[in-house]
Design a protein that fits this description.
The protein is an alpha+beta fold. The chain has three domains: about 1-80, Beta-Lactamase; about 105-210, Beta-Lactamase (2-Layer Sandwich), CATH 3.30.450.20; about 220-300. It has helices at about 15-20, 30-35, 40-50, 85-105, 125-130, 150-165, 210-250, 255-275, 280-290, 295-300, and strands spanning about 1-5, 10-15, 50-55, 60-70, 75-80, 110-115, 120, 170-175, 180-195, 200-210.
Length: about 300
């Protein structure tokens, strides 16, 4: 503690002040002790009340509150060491910057919501995916954040996550992308627990899987086309021998070769339908329908 006249001349101090400044203080001016404090400031404090001055002394930082006692025409300066507080604040700022860098490095959608349903974090990927600026979401109800998707489905899963306190998964959730087109999301919702083990909200991580879904559809189509090609090649191979047989034999009345091709295709269709080798009665029915005299044993052997 320091005591001074209204002009800033020190007239008294306690032992703590002596230890802090490490010198005789009586007769010195407050402006000699505090950087950035001038006589005009002293005059303002003497007439109107209170001010605070932060002063670095060696490796420590002190905060002094200068107060005027109008009745005594005296100024008082009360100081406290705030080095630990400043260190804690710097560490907190550093941790905050690290968190921001961490959030910026995450390539997935990240949305943190507190126990009351208010958004606490909304990373850059969420902003670019939904086209909703972070500044418009922080502190806003998640249910009213403006994402265009299946709200009932998502909310049901959020409720399930909070009630069970276990992660839940949603795949291929339809939503409206920033460009207005339809897209698909893959979402994981995990509970956030407080130190006491109570529900502290939830964390939503998601990915836009629209391109993946398109590629999967293209791959599926390609596989179908490949299967059709293989089936066609198989049919051609199966027809080859019977066609040779047709060319080498007299089929009886008229030009029965073309009709026989139809019979062969009919046999193949029947075998495909039943999943087993075509029985002779079925073949007889087809032959009878097309009025063809067929050597059944020969065809089956071939």
């Amino acid at each position: 503690m320091l005591q001074a006249k209204n002009d800033g001349e020190i007239i008294g101090y306690n032992m703590a002040a002596r230890e802090i400044f490490g010198q005789e203080l009586r007769g010195k001016l407050l402006t000699d002790l505090f950087d950035g404090l001038n006589l005009y400031d002293i005059k303002i404090i003497a007439n109107y009340g209170v001010s605070q001055v932060e002063q670095k002394i060696d490796t420590d930082t002190f905060l002094f509150t200068l107060r005027s006692d109008l009745d005594e025409n005296t100024l008082y300066a009360f100081g406290s060491n705030i080095s630990d507080r400043i260190l804690a604040e710097n560490e907190l700022r550093s941790a905050h910057r690290q968190n921001e860098l961490l959030l910026a490095s995450i390539t997935s959608i990240l949305i943190s919501v507190d126990r009351n349903g208010y958004i606490q974090q909304w990373n850059q990927v969420a902003e670019s995916t939904f086209g909703i600026p972070t500044a418009e979401t922080i502190g806003r109800k998640f249910a009213k954040c403006g994402i265009q998707w299946s709200k009932e489905t998502v909310q049901d899963k959020i409720n399930e996550c909070i009630e069970s306190q276990k992660p839940v998964w949603l795949d291929q959730i339809r939503f409206t992308r920033k460009d207005g087109n339809e897209g698909f999301l893959s979402i994981n919702i995990s509970p956030i627990k407080s130190k006491k083990g109570n529900s502290g909200g939830f964390l939503l991580l998601g990915n836009d899987v629209t391109e993946r879904k398109v590629l999967e559809a293209q791959l599926s189509q390609a596989q179908k086309l490949e299967a059709i090609g293989q089936l066609g090649a198989g049919i051609a191979h199966e027809i080859n021998t019977p066609m040779q047989y047709i060319g080498d034999n007299d089929w009886g009345e008229g030009d029965g070769g073309e009709d026989m091709v139809v019979v062969i295709f009919a046999i193949h269709a029947e075998e495909t339908r039943t999943g087993r080798e075509c029985e002779k009665p079925v073949l007889k029915d087809f032959a009878k329908e097309w009025n063809i005299k067929v050597n059944l044993t020969g065809i089956k052997n071939e």
